[in-house]
Automatic annotation (TrEMBL):
<keyword id="KW-0732">Signal</keyword>
<protein>
    <submittedName>
        <fullName>Uncharacterized protein</fullName>
    </submittedName>
</protein>
<dbReference type="InterPro" id="IPR032675">
    <property type="entry name" value="LRR_dom_sf"/>
</dbReference>
<feature type="signal peptide">
    <location>
        <begin position="1"/>
        <end position="25"/>
    </location>
</feature>
Length: 474
């Protein structure tokens, strides 16, 4: 049986009640009750204010004027975490001013959803006031003056200025920090950071890497390998603390530079590698997680034979030109716990091979037959989550036989997007037999009518079962 729902904690029930009351009290245009509400909330801890703020700002369908009122009333100097959510243009400057005034204690600020690039002065001003920020998320917004203010944030660990650049190459090359460990910058697939660049994008990126000596994770920018080659050519002893990078069009020279400059690298996305690169990925000694886009299947297998033992996570994308037998992976990757395939051509031939540590598998837009799905279910005894986003032919009878072969006792989430022959019988069968199953679907792609889904939902609800049928609204 699927697990039972636990009652909500008193704490959560109170906060939900309070958030409804607040929305109600602040729902007039004139803000008549703002002062009263603020006074009422004065004795509450910052935890409470923060919870209510993020709960209410997260309701994107709630009228923007009510959300803004809540921001004005609930944001206090000791609130640490703020995710602003999506607002209409009319509110941008007001929001920046409110945070400037009342958000001085913020540690985490996410401004995604407020197009602050039209107000660089207000944004710089805000950053001058929020001196304790550790995480700042402002994609598509930073210009040179904003970068200048960022340099003065002495506790900043995580910075997201990805997307279109309003800064110049001179402005961004001033970015320097001993504290930044996670940087999200640039746009996917684009070698250049900004328009005006007199240097190549790689050289500019190399300079930024040099200015951030404690950087661990460099996200979005897709040509980090080229930048590292530049640094390596300059100085063969140059070392970074990078643990994750994304590299495109990697050749053997670049791979060599990566291996030499990044002794701590654990996680890499390799896109369109040139010949022999995939085979040589074993040069990266501590690789735990590999995402390979448009890579060579044969080279990948020989890499696994050499170095698969340490891998925990594999993502393979975009190569349907050769058939990959994923039962071959088992032997070489005993520690794998997550497998993802996107646009691949897969089979599972050796039914005696087992994934002993696999917990999560995703197969999207792949060419497969049902054996692949059945084998993932029967030959991965600790599997918690399976998502199959391609058409499968499995029937209720197949599912019945499958449950005779394996218990699926660890499965929590089973999502098949297109299973035209599975019916309500399979839903009941799985709900009755899988003790941890909490998410099941997606029933729009199954042979089930809306009436049947309603009936199943009633059954789930009256038995207080903790099982969500996807899609949630259908
Ligand atoms: C896909 O892999 C095959 C070998 O397994 C290789 O010949 C081919 O070049 C690869 N395709 C792409 C787009 O990388």
């Amino acid at each position: 049986m699927s697990p039972k729902k636990l009652p909500l904690s008193l704490n959560v029930i109170c906060l939900k009640l309070l958030s409804n009351q607040l929305i109600h009290a602040l729902s007039d245009e004139e803000g008549l009750h703002q002062a009263e509400v603020q006074e009422y909330m004065t004795p509450s801890t910052y935890h409470t204010l923060q919870y209510l703020l993020n709960e209410i700002l997260g309701l994107i369908n709630l009228d923007a004027s009510i959300r803004f009122s809540c921001l004005q009333v609930l944001l206090r100097e000791d609130v640490k975490r703020l995710e602003i959510g999506i607002f209409p243009r009319f509110y941008y400057d007001k929001i920046l001013e409110t945070i400037s005034e009342n958000g001085r204690g913020l540690h985490h600020l996410n401004l995604k959803g407020v197009w602050a690039r039209d107000y660089p002065e207000l944004l710089s001003n805000l950053l001058t006031n929020t001196r304790h920020l550790k995480a700042l998320i402002i994609p598509h917004m930073a210009d040179d003056s904003v970068i200048n203010s960022i340099i003065n944030l002495k506790s900043l660990v995580k910075l997201d200025i990805s997307g279109e650049a309003c800064y110049t190459s001179i402005g961004i090359s001033k970015l320097n920090s001993d504290t930044i460990r996670i940087l999200d910058i640039g746009s996917f697939g684009k070698p250049n950071l900004c328009q005006d660049c007199p240097l190549s994008g790689y050289e500019l990126m190399a300079e930024i890497i040099k200015n951030l000596p404690n950087l661990n994770v460099l996200k979005t920018y897709s040509f980090t390998g080229h930048a590292l080659l530049h640094l390596y050519k300059d100085d063969h002893n140059f070392k970074t603390k990078l643990t994750y990078i994304h590299t495109t069009d990697c050749n053997l020279d670049i791979l060599n530079a990566i291996a030499n400059t990044c002794p701590h690298l654990e996680n890499i996305h390799v896109n369109r590698p040139q010949e022999k690169v995939v085979r040589e990925l074993s040069k990266i000694p501590d690789l735990r997680s590999l995402k390979l886009t448009k890579g060579n299947g044969d080279e990948f297998l020989s890499f696994l034979k050499n170095a698969g033992e340490k891998l925990h996570q594999i993502k393979l994308n975009h190569n349907k030109s050769s058939l990959i037998d994923i039962s071959n992976f088992c032997e070489y990757t005993p520690n794998i716990n997550s497998l993802e395939f996107y646009h691949m051509y897969l089979k599972f031939s050796n039914l005696d091979s087992f994934y002993v540590n696999l917990q999560k598998v995703q197969i999207l837009y792949c060419d497969i037959d049902d054996t692949v799905v059945k084998s993932m279910l029967t030959n991965a005894p600790f599997l918690k989550s399976i998502t199959v986003g391609c058409s499968i032919q499995m029937t209720d009878g197949d599912m019945f036989r499958l449950l005779g072969e394996c218990t699926l006792e660890n499965i929590e989430e089973l999502l098949f997007s297109e299973a035209r022959f599975l019916t309500a019988i399979t839903v009941e069968l799985l709900a009755d037999n899988c003790p941890k199953l909490k998410v099941l679907g997606s029933l729009v792609g199954w042979d089930i009518t809306p009436d049947e889904i309603d009936a199943l939902r009633v059954l789930i609800s009256i038995t207080n079962t903790d099982l969500t049928l996807w899609p949630v609204a259908y």
